[in-house]
Amino acid sequence: MQTAESDFLVGFILFPGFTALDLIGPHEVLARCCKRCLLIAATLEPVLSNHGVRVLPDVSFGNCPQVDVLVVPGGPGQEQAIEDEELIAFIRRQSAKAIWTASVCTGALLLARAGALKGRRATTHWLAMDELARLGAIPLGQRVVWENRTVTAAGVSAGIDMALGLIAALYGPDAGMRIQLAIEYDPQPPFAAGAPDKAPQEIVESLRRTSRFANKQ
Fold first, then answer.
1. pTM, to two decimals
2. Where in the sequence is the domain holding 55, given as residue range(s)?
């Protein structure tokens, strides 16, 4: 843990088709303490999320300095990103020296493809657990999983939980609680359907059938 006067360089990876909340949730939390945050992509051209949010990168893979914390979002574009050797090599290179390497949702599949989760416990979106195992990780059905220098979050909204945990790891629990209160993060969802063991079975199965991972089961 560092003092509040210390700062860390945090890098957030962008790729076409990322899920916006996977990025924006952790960024909002981490940027409140870590004042040096970089958005990183293959080029400096705007990158579109899967629902059309345009994000402008700060640096490219080729000129990004070593970061202290690397955050990898997920999203439908992960299927193409996992075949992008430049992106995977960047993750491999950065994660080898980062203090923490983190992922949200199917970003864990990119970490696994880069070798950062080989033989390690990790989580991802519940629909992608089998794929995570195929890529060499040990999947756990938990919201956030901490393992050595990696921390992985389950689907989308879990990235906020993960980022608050990172703040606590870097600056102490009081810093995490201050940010949680500042953003009034006090989830009270209208439905008890936020996990496959809580949602009605017919909804679980309908999502499973239409998942892009369905043909990989």
1. 0.95
2. 9-188
